[in-house]
Amino acid sequence: MKCPFCKLDEDKVVDSRSSGDGSVIRRRRECLKCHRRYTTYEKVERATIRVVKKDGRREDFDAKKILSGLEKACQKRPVPTERLEQIATEIETQIYENFDNEVPSSEIGKLVMEKLRDLDKVAYIRFASVYREFKDITDFMKEMTPMMQPGEAKRETGEKKEG
């Protein structure tokens, strides 16, 4: 590993830690020349999965796009970045577990929407409005009406459903 500061490729690992789910190893390294420290991440390289877009185009799966979509949907919402990163990792894991070579973009969108619905209703509606290409306020209302039912409101506030 080359030092990002002096470019020497001789370093020592000062600390190694596994991520919460064990899929990534974080290493703190120290350059033997300039003695500066930097962090690297190591994870298993997986087979390439292609995403099949609505128009039939195919492109390589990029988990960063999932995180980006989550961040846009949750912008100015009280959702910690760590939680968004965790959700993106969970979705990525589901994709690699359930698809071999190709995954329809619609499946990725459904997974994101499922996670957002449980995480933050406003972020869910934001994402759904783009993903489902809402044309007018009627489309918004169709999506929001089930969420406004009494049982959903109680679930949102953490109260138990009656019955």
List keywords for this structure.
163 residues; alpha+beta; 2 domains; three-stranded antiparallel beta sheet; elongated
Could you outline the blueprint of secondary structure elements for this entry?
Blueprint: E1 11-18, E2 24-31, E3 37-43, E4 50-52, E5 58-60, H1 63-73, H2 81-98, E6 102-104, H3 105-119, H4 121-131, H5 137-144, H6 150-157
Parallel strand pairs: 4-6
Antiparallel strand pairs: 1-2, 2-3, 4-5
Distance between the termini: 60 Å
Total strand count, please? 6
SSE class: alpha+beta
Task: Evaluate the radius of gyration.
Answer: 21 Å
Strand order of the largest sheet: 1-2-3
Helical residues, percent? 40-55%
> β content, as a range?
15-25%
Low-confidence stretches: 153-163
Written as H for each helix and E for each strand, in order along the chain, the element string is EEEEEHHEHHHH
Shape call: elongated
Mean pLDDT: 87
Count every helix, treating DSSP H or I runs of 4 or more residues as helices: 6
The major beta sheet can be summarized as: 3 strands, antiparallel
Total tally of structural domains:
2
Q: Would you summarize the structure shown here?
A:
This protein has helices spanning 63-73, 81-98, 105-119, 121-131, 137-144, 150-157; strands at 11-18, 24-31, 37-43, 50-52, 58-60, 102-104. With 163 residues, it is α+β, with helices and mostly antiparallel strands. The strands form 2 sheets. The protein has a 3-stranded antiparallel sheet with strand order 1-2-3, with no helix packed on it. A 3-stranded mixed sheet has the order 5-4-6.
